[in-house]
Design brief:
It contains 11 helices and 8 strands. It is an alpha/beta fold. It is elongated, with a radius of gyration of 20 Å.
């Protein structure tokens, strides 16, 4: 648990730790608000529903931490992390997500996240995650931390190099899945809230990485590697 607020300066309340919530689900934000309000040392400075709104809000205020979902419209959580640090270099970032896949965890930490907490663990672990991050440590949900450490050991032993050789980014895999489902570039752009030109660029980069010349081969690759 985050320690209770300390008094100082003649008995005045210590400065509260300011948090912004960024999640496109209103019910999730309400649930987080309910949990965080239990601790008087924390202050919810704002709530936003997408990544671009978050950057706009950061330009107006200086929070201590952003609690951020991976899947958000306009600017996804992992892609937003470098932009958050560009606007506010000292702000801490805690990813709060339903995604248990380790590739999301690795990409989030690589992008600069200070913690990765599963939503299913939030009620029990949220205060602990905040406390660890405030004290300069990286926090990872216990189930993922155990699994990730095991995989890291296997990689160090040369037994498993899955995450060293993964050729596609998370965004590219999202687009690949939609391509394999028969979606057009415009449909993909509309679904992911990105431009057609961005979709085309990702498609071209994927085909170059995989040494694939035709869309049919790209679909075969998706099927063979269980992307759909």
């Amino acid at each position: 648990m985050v320690p209770p607020p300390k008094s100082g300066n003649g008995g005045r309340m210590a400065k509260r730790y300011r948090v912004i919530l960024a999640d496109d689900h209103v019910l999730v934000r309400r649930g987080l608000t309910r949990i965080l309000q239990e601790n008087q040392n924390l202050e919810i400075s704002g709530e936003v529903g997408d990544g671009l709104e978050l950057l706009s809000l950061l330009n107006k205020m200086k929070p201590d931490m952003v609690i951020l979902d991976v899947s958000m419209p306009n600017l996804r959580g992992i892609e937003a992390i470098p932009e958050i640090h560009r606007v506010q270099p000292d702000v801490k970032v805690l990813i709060l997500t339903m995604h248990k896949e380790e590739e999301y965890l690795y990409q989030a930490i690589s992008a600069g996240a200070d913690g990765y907490l599963l939503k299913e663990d939030a009620e029990k672990e949220l205060f602990l995650a905040i406390e660890n991050i405030r004290n300069g440590r990286v926090y990872i949900s216990p189930s993922l931390a155990d699994q990730s450490m095991q995989n890291w050991v296997r990689m160090r032993r040369g037994e498993d190099t899955t995450y060293d050789t993964q050729p596609l980014t998370i965004r590219q895999r999202e687009i690949l899945k939609l391509i394999a489902e028969g979606k057009s570039n415009k449909e993909i752009g509309d679904l992911l809230c990105i431009s057609v030109r961005t979709v085309e660029r990702h498609r071209a980069n994927m085909m170059s990485k995989l040494n694939i010349k035709k869309t049919a081969e790209l679909v075969q690759y998706a099927l063979r590697n269980h992307y759909i």
